[in-house]
């Protein structure tokens, strides 16, 4: 099965993004027959497909057949052994949000296995893990790309890398980095009118599927803090972890420890006045409130939380659940380079992963 024109692909995770990725991989393999892309391993947390001969797993039916497979996933060390025991180059696609898989990236990379992933965990965990990943990549020559870990398929990471690599000086990065927070604030404090009560907007966002099953997982700000950690590190700041800078949680202290998301939603109306006052304060100044992240590169200040914006500001004028990311740099002067669009969704996120894979392929 081995040949220099064959690239083996291993996929961990077959949920919302994984399914779209497999479909895009199937189209890519048809459009670009060289090098031959061979799916040799696929797994979820319970089921797997692979063979000792690295036989090609059919791309179109891999996911639908997984539930009936009798194979279970290889332990990560065993997977690294399996994937590196062939002369073909291999790319691992991590479509999970698993910390355990993320922590194994240095192992895979040191075995010459390249990685493309939308998983934020590896790049926003400890600074040591970040260093281990990039030094393993530099030593072995295996590549690692993670475009969709910030802003899904929006070209946020590649743009920042290009700015830095071409010698521009990034002074500030600011934006709305969460589709959930974008949707919530665009309906709670629209530029055109008064908007609804905070608790009603949170419930609506949950009912429409914009929030995690427990909305507190969005409202604690950690997801945005992880994205800021990644961008700040790429801009050259040694951020130790997503908890090493101020992150404003929108969970009332009294509701932090209630047992379930449902109980949280039931009690949230009791705290509507807190967010209502914040909105009214902004309105008095002719502004609207938004949940943003910012990185001031010169002063090394990273923060996540509520800010007031003029109604005409691009951040205030955002629509739906879109993300917006502004790069202020020496070359762009006072008019930032702005990237805006859908920052979530299976297809656009998988697009970022597939384009990462194409970048890896061009370098193998
Ligand atoms: N969805 C989006 O819009 C979006 C946007 C940007 C970034 N992302 C990132 O993309 C990644 C995937 O998101 P998703 O929405 O596709 O999640 P998902 O629907 O929850 O799917 C996750 C998949 O990973 C599998 N998995 C989890 N832990 C695993 C493990 N330790 N070993 C093997 N398989 C494991 C799950 O298997 P089981 O079903 O068996 O548990 C499932 O197939 C996440 O890192 C997410 O943050 C997603």
From TrEMBL:
The lineage of its organism: Eukaryota, Fungi, Dikarya, Ascomycota, Pezizomycotina. PROSITE patterns: HOMOSER_DHGENASE. Catalyzes the conversion of L-aspartate-beta-semialdehyde (L-Asa) to L-homoserine (L-Hse), the third step in the biosynthesis of amino acids that derive from aspartate (the aspartate family of amino acids), including methioinine and threonine, the latter of which is a precursor to isoleucine; production of homoserine leads to a branch-point in the pathway as it can either be O-phosphorylated for processing to threonine, or O-acylated for processing to methionine. This is Homoserine dehydrogenase. Keywords: Amino-acid biosynthesis, Methionine biosynthesis, NADP, Oxidoreductase, Threonine biosynthesis. InterPro entries: Asp/hSer_DH_NAD-bd (IPR005106), Bifunc_Aspkin/hSer_DH (IPR011147), HDH_cat (IPR001342), HDH_CS (IPR019811), HDH_short (IPR022697), NAD(P)-bd_dom_sf (IPR036291). NADP(+) binds at residues 13-18. One of its GO terms (biological process) is threonine biosynthetic process. The active site is at 227 (proton donor). It catalyses: L-homoserine + NADP(+) = L-aspartate 4-semialdehyde + NADPH + H(+). Its EC number is 1.1.1.3. Its cofactor is a metal cation. Residues 13-147 form the Aspartate/homoserine dehydrogenase NAD-binding domain. It comes from the Eukaryota. It is an enzyme of class 1 (oxidoreductase). Belongs to the homoserine dehydrogenase family. NADPH binds at residues 96, 120. Pathway: Amino-acid biosynthesis; L-threonine biosynthesis; L-threonine from L-aspartate: step 3/5; Amino-acid biosynthesis; L-methionine biosynthesis via de novo pathway; L-homoserine from L-aspartate: step 3/3. One of its GO terms (molecular function) is NADP binding. SUPFAM superfamilies: Glyceraldehyde-3-phosphate dehydrogenase-like, C-terminal domain (SSF55347), NAD(P)-binding Rossmann-fold domains (SSF51735). L-homoserine binds at residue 212. Residues 155-358 form the Homoserine dehydrogenase catalytic domain. Pfam families: Homoserine_dh, NAD_binding_3.
């Amino acid at each position: 099965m081995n040949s220099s024109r064959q690239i083996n692909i291993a996929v961990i995770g077959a949920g919302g993004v994984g399914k779209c990725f497999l479909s895009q991989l199937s189209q890519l393999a048809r459009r670009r027959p060289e090098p031959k892309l061979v799916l040799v391993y696929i797994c979820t947390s319970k089921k797997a497909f692979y063979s000792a001969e690295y036989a090609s797993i059919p791309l179109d039916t891999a996911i639908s057949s997984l539930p009936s497979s009798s194979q279970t996933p290889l332990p990560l060390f065993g997977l690294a052994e399996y994937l590196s025991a062939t002369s073909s180059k291999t790319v691992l696609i991590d479509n999970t949000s698993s910390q355990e898989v993320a922590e194994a990236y240095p192992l895979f990379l040191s075995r010459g296995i390249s990685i493309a992933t939308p998983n934020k965990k590896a790049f926003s965990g400890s600074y040591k893990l970040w260093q281990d990943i990039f030094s393993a990549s530099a030593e072995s020559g295996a590549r690692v790309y993670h475009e969709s870990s910030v802003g899904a398929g929006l070209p946020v990471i590649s743009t920042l890398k290009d700015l830095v690599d071409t010698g521009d000086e990034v002074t500030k990065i600011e934006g709305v980095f969460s589709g959930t927070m974008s949707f919530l604030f665009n309906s709670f404090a629209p530029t055109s009118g008064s908007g609804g009560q905070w608790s009603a907007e949170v419930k609506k966002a949950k009912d429409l599927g914009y929030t995690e099953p427990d909305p507190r997982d969005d409202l604690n700000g950690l997801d945005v803090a992880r994205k800021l950690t990644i961008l700040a590190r790429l801009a050259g700041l040694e951020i130790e972890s997503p908890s090493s800078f101020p992150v404003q949680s929108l969970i009332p202290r009294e509701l932090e420890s209630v047992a379930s998301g449902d109980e949280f939603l039931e009690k949230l109306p009791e705290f509507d006045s807190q967010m209502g006052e914040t909105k009214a304060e902004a309105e008095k100044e002719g502004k609207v409130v938004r949940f943003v992240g910012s990185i001031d590169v010169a002063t090394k200040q990273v923060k996540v939380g509520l800010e007031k914006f003029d109604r005409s500001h691009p951040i205030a004028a955002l629509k739906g659940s879109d993300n917006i990311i502004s790069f202020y740099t020496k070359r762009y002067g006072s008019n930032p380079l702005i990237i805006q669009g859908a920052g979530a969704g299976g297809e656009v996120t998988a697009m970022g992963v597939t384009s990462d894979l194409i970048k890896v392929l061009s370098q193998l």
